[in-house]
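Predict both folds.
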Amino acid sequence: MRADPTGITTSAFAGLPAAVGSGGGVIATEREGLGIARIAARRAHAPKVAELLRAQFGLEPPNAPRRVSRGDVAIAGVAPGTWLATRDDASNAFAESLGSLLGDCASVSDQSDAYVILRLTGPKVRETLAKLLPIDIHPRGFLVNDVAQTICGYVGVTLWRLENTAQGDPVFEIWTGRSLAVSLDQAIAHGAAEFGFVRQSA
C-alpha cells in the first residue's frame, strides 16, 4: 500500500514576527502550495528527459544555472543532468506526475514539503541581500533567471532572480530546507531591519 503524501499545512514561519523595523524596504512573501520536484537524469538519459519535458511543458531544461518558465511551471538547472521543477498550486501531486512522465529516464523526488520559499522584493532587497550573500547580485552580474546555490547568513540556499516589478524593484526567490526556515527568516529580517522588513502570506 502506498502512503499518502504528508501535505504539511502549517507555515514554517508561524510564530515569528511578521514585521521588523519601520517601512517596507524588503517584502517577503511565502510561496504556498507549490509543487516541487528534483529531477536527476539517469546515465545517458538527459537528452530523453529534456525531450519529454519539452513535449509536455514547452520548456527546454537548462544545461546551466538558469531558470526557464512557462505558465505555472518552472525548471531550474542546479547540476549537470539535475533540475528543480516547480508548479503553482500543485503540491505533492506534481512530482508524482513527473515520475509517470519520465519513467526510467530519471529519478524524481518530491520536495514539496522539504523546502520553504520566500519571494523577496522591495526597493532595498538588493542592499539587504548584499549583506548576507557571498556572491555578486548586481543586475549586470546576476541576470533575470540566473540561479545560484550559495549561503545566506550561514544558511545554505538556492537563489534565483525574477523579472523586476512594474515599479522597477528587483525580485528574487530564495529557498532553503524547512528545518532552516527560522534561521533564514531571522537573517533576512536582521539584514533588512534598517529598511523595514515585512513578511506576508501569498
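Second protein follows, with its predicted C-alpha cells after the sequence.
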Amino acid sequence: MGEFPAVLITGARATGKTTTAAQRVEQVDRLDAPGVAAAYRADPDAALRRASRPVLLDEWQEVPEVLAAVKRAVDRDQTPGQFLLTGSVRAELTNELWAGTGRIVRTEIFGVTERELAGRLDPDQPAFLTTLARGALDQLGMATSPPDIDEYLRLAVRGGFPEIAYRQRSDRARGLWLASYLDDLLTRDAAVLDAHKDPAKLRRYLHALALNIAGTPTDATLYQAANVDAKTAAGYEQLLENLYVLTQVPAWSSNRLSRLTKAAKRYLIDTGLAAAAANLTLADILADPGLTGRFFDAYAATQLRPELALMYPRPVAHHLRVEGGRREVDLVVDLGAGRVVALEFKAGSAPRADDAKHLFWLRDQLGDDFLAGVVIHTGPGLFELGDRIYAVPLCAMWS
C-alpha cells in the first residue's frame, strides 16, 4: 500500500483477508450489503469519489463493474494506498475480463504463523533464510523450552486458520470447524468454479493428497487411490490450486546434475486442514513414522511460505530428487543468481552428520553457489555439522 494505489488480497477462504484489510483503511464498503451494492451499481465512479481513502471494497465480485471504476480512478490519480479489494476466490476465475491488469497489484495472504502468534514481528530483523545464508547462527534466537515432536505436531494439527489459531478451541470444536470448512470447499466453492465436479470424488482425491502431503507420489498413485482417471485427477488438482488450497513445489533442475526427477512436491496450504481431510488425529500421525516426517515437513513449510513471499528479490523454492530416490533434499531455495539455501526437515531431536549427507553432496556439486545447508529438526540444539552445513531447530524461526 505504500507503493501502489490499489491492492487485491488473495488467498484461501477464512485466512483473514477482510479482517486484516479492515484494520488498514478509513472506510469499509461491503458490496454484499444491498444498499451499498445498489449505490455502486448505479454509479461506481461516483461511489468511489465519495469514499474516504483508503477504502476497502469487500466482496467486490458482487459488483464486478467496480473494477473498471478502480482502474479509471487509478489512471487519474496514482497516489499509493487508495484501494484495498477482497472477495471470493472464485470471483477472479469466473470473471471473463479482468479490468485490473496493470493497475491492481495482487498479494497473497497465508495462514497465521507461530512468529505472528508469538508477537515477534520485527521488520528490521533479517529473514530466517537470509540469516542462514550468511551463516549467522548467533543471530538466531532459542526458546527456553523448545517444543518436542509431540508439540510440533500438535501445532501442525491445529493449523494456521485464524479462527482456530487465535482461539483456544477444543479438539472437538476444531474438528467441527474444519469439517464444515471442507464441506463448503468441496461443495459450494468447487461447484461455482466447475458445476460438473463430483463432490464425493473430489473429497476422495483431497483425502489422497492429504495422506501424501509433502510427498512426491506418482500421479497414478493419487488417482488410483481416489478411484478416478488421470484427466479427472488433473482437473481436481487445478481446481484445488485455483482455490488456494493446494500448492506444488516444482522439481529443481540444473545442468550440473543429471537424472533429476521432474515430479512436483505437493502441499496442502494448511496442515490442520490436511489432517482433517485425511481423517487423522495427532495420535494417528505420531504412530506412523512416514506421516510424522511428512507432517513435520509440511508444517515447517507453512512457517516459511509467508517469509519467502516477503523477501526481495523473491526466492524460488524447489525440491530435489534424483531418480530412484538416491539423493533427496526437501527444499532448495534459489535466492537469486543460482545461489541456494538447501533445507532438510528431520523429525528427530539429535541430528548427526549422516542426516545431512544429501546436503554435503549438494554442496560439493554446487561449490560457491551453495550458501548453506540446514537440517531443520525437533530438538534443542543449534550447531554446525560441517562447512556451511548446520543443524537448526524449527522453533528458531520464531524464538
